[in-house]
Specification:
7-stranded mixed sheet, globular, Butyryl-Coa Dehydrogenase, subunit A, domain 1, 11 helices, Butyryl-CoA Dehydrogenase, subunit A, domain 3, 3 domains, Butyryl-CoA Dehydrogenase, subunit A, domain 2
Amino acid sequence: MLLHNDDQQMLADSAQRYLERGYGSAARAAATADAHGCPPARWAEFAELGWLALPIPAEAAGAAGLGGSVADLCALAEPLGQALVVEPWLASAVLGAGLLADAAPADLASDWLPALAVDIGGVACIASGQADGGFLLHGDKALAPGAAGADAWLLLACLSHANPSKPRELGLFLVDAATPGALAKPGVLVDGQHAATIHLDGASVAAPLRRGPADQMLQMVERSLDRATLVQGAELVGAMAQALKITLAYLKTRRQFGRAIADNQVVQHRLVDLHVEIEEARAITRAAAATFDSAGDDAARRRWCAAAKACVAQAALHVWEESVQLHGAIGMTEACEIGAYVKRLAVGTMLYGDLPFHLDRLADLSLPSQA
């Protein structure tokens, strides 16, 4: 397994100390109870720690970015996952800000990147061109993490054309959340993270940051999504490791037939299997992050990302199932600590592509075409 370098280990250790000192269940509940899932004071602390600047390229104009690699982001993500952080660091600082830095002109990026209040939507939107050069957006984007509290959103939309035979084009739009006709309907996921459905009903926006043929635009966005997918995988590895730690501690104290459950050899074998799966998921995630940072081959980057998320999702599914099974009925209650980790792992296996999605993607990228 690839090990963290000294800087990455210091980053992970400092994050873990901060979270152990001040981010327990009460802080997590407060974040979930917040209207936007992100208390301003806590977000400001993340900024002071440099976590919000870490994903931003150092050369981004005026943004004071730290230019962290994907491996650096994964090093930070593991302790965040271990603590079940609710605030939308991944959706905003990693995915949204990363894409904005890639797509926006330098002057516009410098205005928005320091705020780190962006999110990315899908292509279920239509953009109609206007005489003044602007566009009107119509459509919906469901379950955008962190969108309700964002100052702006990044949204992909299909550009409508009078000529239906013209090749399909997509545009990437920066939409101010205060724009008339744009509305975020907030909601809370089962694990306490906030997400929103963005409804666009004739929202008037400026020209897109980028526009072009659908395949080219999707390739640009895919790179940002792959980056976020790997970082989210590292978060899940942290959550899995903590879930196993909690389960082991419970089995050492819970007694049946006069001895601790953990003394049963069959139980020990199951715990070892979980440990091996978690370490495999950690190893492939770190290897994929290293490949992302170094490879100029987009195909290799896609294969590694698909393989890593498939491995992480499969391990997460097994960990949360076994955690509940080994705890017994108490593992399904709100009072039991493991319950929060089970919910995070269940949600995490679905975000940024589930297991079947990434297995299919890996097969398509790895096997020769039969056409």
